[in-house]
Specification:
Layout lengths: L2 E6 L9 H18 L3 E4 L13 H10 L5 E8 L5 H14 L4 E6 L6 H6 L10 H12 L20 E5 L2 H10 L3 E3 L8 H11 L11 E9 L3 H20 L18 H10 L3 E4 L1 H15 L3 E5 L5 H15 L4
Parallel strand pairs: 1-2, 1-9, 2-3, 3-4, 4-5, 5-6, 6-7, 7-8, 7-9
Length: 329
């Protein structure tokens, strides 16, 4: 059976502050554990007023401390923003605090704009060293060897599982070459999904961590009691994507009755292209959509974004998805 997991955006809404968003993420983790989801991930974003997960390792600690068994991790850490040694220390610490429950997904994009990248004291050229940085990080998480001069304490020996994240052929080829699990970001960049999966599977080389390909597929899902209610809840996400192209960076907005009154034709076209891998509806509609996606992609796991404004309705969306896909433990 295809596993289901959650990517939480840690949204700051017009009715919450950053602390509320962080506590909602922790509460979602506790509910996700009860519903039967395999893992909950958060992602590194900087200079986004509506996203509170910039200090990604701290957010992971907050969620993991409020749960018992669900895997918690980064989907992902934007490695060019950091020294691999520091990430090994951070995630080694998490692995010591929550043994066997921490995942480390790695991305090559900066997760922000060029001005913020400069504020991070990183060069855009840092992304060119991504493959070498992945190997360096992996080495710091491996057991230390005799006379090793630099040891990640307490990261050494934790072997925190690494994932490669991507939305292009580059990530697929790298994950295959290094023998790592691969997560494709089709929840916002769906165009190359099938090409990347085929490339990853055909070129995969077994490694100590992974003996066969393992592919995770990102998908937006909004579930509600009726198709009409789900479509209305979905307008929050549609507005967020329209805002990317209008330059309106702000907080998550409550749903509206008619999305056509909000976006321009250009914003609509761009948002719909990015949201092509989206399933919205009542439980039966959701099941049909997810079954079709699994059949098309052969995904080992789906990681679901349910970008619903109100926390209680977001919890309900994830509960309905778990029920209809029969993952509850």
């Amino acid at each position: 059976m295809t596993a289901l997991s959650i990517l939480d955006l840690v949204r700051v809404t017009e009715d919450t502050d950053a602390r509320g968003a962080l506590d909602n993420a922790r509460d979602l983790g506790a509910h996700a554990e009860k519903y039967g989801y395999r893992r909950i991930w958060v992602a590194e974003h900087h200079n986004f007023p509506g996203i509170a997960s910039a200090a990604t390792s701290l957010v992971i600690q907050h969620i993991a401390a409020g749960t018992q068994k669900i895997r918690v991790g980064a989907g992902g850490i934007m490695l060019p923003n950091h020294a691999p040694y520091v990430i090994a220390e951070q995630f080694g610490t998490l692995a010591q605090l929550f043994p066997g429950r921490i995942d480390l997904g790695l991305g090559r994009a900066p997760g922000t704009d060029q001005n913020t990248l400069r504020a991070l004291r990183r060069s855009p050229e840092s992304a060119e060293h991504f493959p070498q940085d992945v190997l360096e990080l992996q080495a710091f998480l491996a057991p230390a060897v005799p006379n090793q001069a630099i040891i990640a304490v307490p990261g050494a020996g934790t072997k925190v599982p690494l994932w490669i994240l991507g939305s292009s052929q580059f990530g697929a080829m790298l994950a295959a070459e290094f023998g790592l699990p691969y997560s494709f970001a089709s929840h916002f960049a769906p165009d190359l999904l099938m090409t990347a999966l085929e490339l990853y599977r055909s070129r995969f080389k077994p490694s100590e961590q992974q003996d066969r390909p393992y592919a995770m597929v990102g998908v937006n899902v909004i579930a509600a009691e009726t198709d009409a209610e789900a479509r209305r809840l979905h307008t929050t996400q549609q507005m967020s994507f329209a805002d990317i192209f209008s330059g309106r960076r702000g907080l998550s907005k409550p749903p509206i009755d008619d999305i056509e009154t909000y976006w321009t034709p250009f914003e609509k076209a761009q948002a719909q292209r990015m949201l092509a891998r989206t399933v919205v509806g009542a439980p039966a509609t959701v099941k049909a959509g997810l079954d079709a996606l699994i059949a098309e992609t052969g995904a080992d796991e789906l990681i679901i974004v349910s970008d619903v404004y109100a926390h209680d309705k977001r919890l309900r969306s994830f509960e309905l998805i778990a029920d209809v896909m029969d993952i509850k433990s």
